[in-house]
Design brief:
about 325 residues; alpha/beta; TIM Barrel; two-stranded antiparallel sheet; 13 helices; about 45% helix
């Protein structure tokens, strides 16, 4: 569009790019600066909170269409052990608190986490500081009641890797029982999956699922399935990422009536080499998902202010009159 054309939030493209460049420039000056102890300084925190990002409904809850993910906070990069270790060293408990506060000030109101042991104290600290952040717990197995009691999430979602494995073993009833147990505990129940066939089957069978978490990349293929994938479709840096996967998952997401939260829309960093690549990934996700859907994105702001960048893209592409 022309440089003076405005999006649904009234922001011109020229102004949007100016803000984005300022965010990148600011992070270049501060995000990677090392202190005496060899650790990077804390992320730059905006002086005041911006308006809430575009939202959708999960049950009775209004959540932003951009939800901050958990993997970087726990050191899961899908880029190798060195990056995993770097993320674990960076995200101290104090930095996680500051990171989520920064996300909230940028207009993000929901965090999806998967490690209750890590997050219980962090969530308590945030709430004591006045945070209104909502939390979605990715979980499997027992302890549902304790998670609800200790952390008060708005929802608990069955873990995607476990979902795919149980469906492959013919044990989908365990996932169904988990969903029922979450509802019995009084919170929203979701199911995460990497394999779009699992989502389609749950929808076809009419499970009482409040929403899905839908991975843009099927990372749980068997060795036989991987051998059948075209080599030219494989993305760099390994771990089973294929370029055609997002089309397959979003096609299923558009068919189910429940909200879907797309995750790994940036292919775990494989689409983060430039701001333009990130912008293209966000645009694809919001165009291909339903207006009632959202995205979950992990962020690592050590070298770039990814929080500000991603929030800007969510404002630009996530605004819809139909959400």
């Amino acid at each position: 569009m022309h440089s003076d054309q405005r999006d649904a939030n009234g922001t011109s493209r020229r102004e949007f790019l100016r803000r984005l460049s300022l965010g990148i420039a600011g992070s270049a000056l501060t995000g990677g600066r090392m202190g005496q102890a060899g650790e990077a300084d804390s992320p730059v925190i905006p002086e005041s909170a911006g308006p809430l990002l575009p939202t959708i409904r999960l049950g009775d809850h209004q959540v932003t269409r951009l939800i901050v993910g958990a993997n970087p906070l726990s050191g899961y990069s899908y880029l190798g052990s060195s990056m995993d270790q770097e993320m674990r060293e960076y995200f101290t408990r104090e930095r996680v608190v500051e990171f989520l506060a920064h996300c909230e000030r940028a207009g993000i109101n929901t965090h999806q986490f998967h490690d209750p042991a890590l997050m219980t104290g962090i969530i308590r600290t945030l709430r004591e500081q006045g945070s209104k952040m909502k939390f979605i717990c990715l979980h499997s197995g027992g302890g549902i009641e304790q998670v609800v009691r200790d952390m008060q999430p708005i929802a608990i979602v069955h873990h995607g890797g476990v979902t795919d494995s149980l469906f492959r073993q013919g044990k989908s009833e365990q996932v169904h029982d988990f969903v029922k147990g979450v509802h019995d505990a009084g919170v929203l129940a979701g199911v995460s999956a990497h394999n779009p066939d699992c989502v389609k089957r749950i929808a076809d069978e009419g499970w009482q699922v409040d929403f899905f978490m839908t991975c843009f990349h099927n990372l749980t293929r068997s060795a036989e399935e991987l051998a059948k994938m075209p080599p030219a479709d494989a993305m760099p840096k390994g771990h089973g990422f294929f370029a055609s996967d997002p089309v397959a998952m979003t096609e299923v997401a558009r068919q189910v009536k429940q909200p879907c939260l797309g995750f790994k829309i940036l292919a775990a960093g494989r689409k983060c080499d430039t701001p333009q690549a990130v912008q293209t990934a966000f645009q694809f996700a919001f165009e291909q998902l339903k207006p009632i859907d959202g995205v979950i994105v992990g962020m690592y702001p050590r070298h770039r202010d990814q929080i500000t960048e991603n929030a800007a893209f969510a404002r630009q592409f996530g605004a819809t009159k139909n959400a």
